[in-house]
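Practice record 12: protein with adenosine-5'-diphosphate.
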Amino acid sequence: MQIVHISAECYPVAKVGGLGDVVGSLPRFQNELGHDACVIMPMYRSKYLYTHDWEVVHKSSSNLGHWWFDYTVIKEKSNAQGFHLYLVDINGLLDREKVYGYEDDVERFCAFQIAVSNWLCSWDKLPSVVHVHDHHAGLIPFIMQHTYSFKRLEYVPTVLTIHNAQYQGAFGWDKTMYLPHWDSWKRGMLEWQGTINPLASAIKCAWKVTTVSNSYLGELTSMSNGLEPLFEYEKGKCSGIINGIDYKVWDPENDKYLTENFTVKTVSTGKAKNKEILCKQFGLDFNKPLFIFIGRLVGEKGADLLPKVIYDSFQHIGRKMNFLILGSGDPEVESAVSLLKNFSQGDFNEYIGYNEQLSHLMYAGADFLLMPSRVEPCGLNQLYAMKYGTVPVVRRTGGLKDTVVDMGERDGYGITFNHASVGDITHAIYRSVELYHQKETFNNIRKNMMELDFSWSRSASEYIQLYQSFY
Ligand code: ADP
Ligand code: GLC
């Protein structure tokens, strides 16, 4: 099958979060199953662009309302990622350093989706399936099925994967002229609550919809930032497929970001060496259990609770543990986290910003990973943590619920709690500190976790089965 993934992120070209990791690995696993999967994404001005060789495969022009633009599609020559990787360049819109966060994001992603549809239309043989990811590519199913200029794509099957329904990309009807010409009675296929909502439109138009875990799918009918009735209505075409992780990138045995690699057999010494490096770098105490948080510092991740949790843990449990936070996001949360340093007695530190290399060292050197997420469609951090022998301490929600079993349950290996509340999280930290001191149990849990299989093999075939249901 020829599978075309369309996404705003793809690791290592451009990554903001887990979407990048998934789109950067799933296609390779689909190819290993004998298919022909490729990725099409915007041509940002990221480091990857300047360190690889490219060839121009297509040049054309299209229009965003009254504005005509030229676009160019380039292809990475060496197939370095294990799949064909295409970047779409639109001068003035996509030639930026960052992925998101610009005032004209609506224009940028509308133009990107129009250029992609325009290019697909020119293919001699149309793809077997067009697989769009999140709202940045969410208008494509509508464009393919309901706009005159792209009629040729009308019967190509489409799949939407929702990595996060919190973000929907909605914009006002005053921008309707950006969309290629369509019959106005089809307005309902774009609209949700008085706006053009690309995520809602994709849920309505795509042939199938998937979310990145089963539990998250279940939660969407009662908690999806306003789309609840839509999920209820469309549930017949929705299914949950849990993400896998790419062991080529995420394996402590051959992780290229680590200087001290380790395996299940050498986990104790291996992690100790990494912890030593980390503690030295951040002025922490090697002898205390180290709790880390890695991620976007936003309410969705429960990051706003961390300052109070850390403060309360020191108050109630004592200064028996260390915390290290890596992340960026909401400026208020960033400054609350930074302020905590004033109270540190060599037991708290942070790195505000994005740092891929540091994240690997943290998974490798930490004892526990905190994930008090309010919403977690899948979550990759807990999967990486487990592969690196770091015990996940997570809220029982979405993908966290589907991948972490509390150590109190049969064959359990993590620590879980129910509410994103300071009390519940602090209690989970208390349980973790207790576990840390039961050396034998702690070591066994580490080893068991490292041997769990969260590879892509199963999930990649589940996607293929879904595509095959169209034929
Ligand atoms: P989300 O996509 O919602 O942010 P995931 O758990 O799916 O959450 O994936 C987050 C990914 O982004 C992981 O690979 C994690 O290591 C990485 N990450 C998040 N924040 C940072 C950061 N500040 N520095 C480095 N890596 C980060
Ligand atoms: C999203 C979700 C996260 C998921 C990732 C990859 O960003 O917030 O839970 O793991 O996408 O699917």
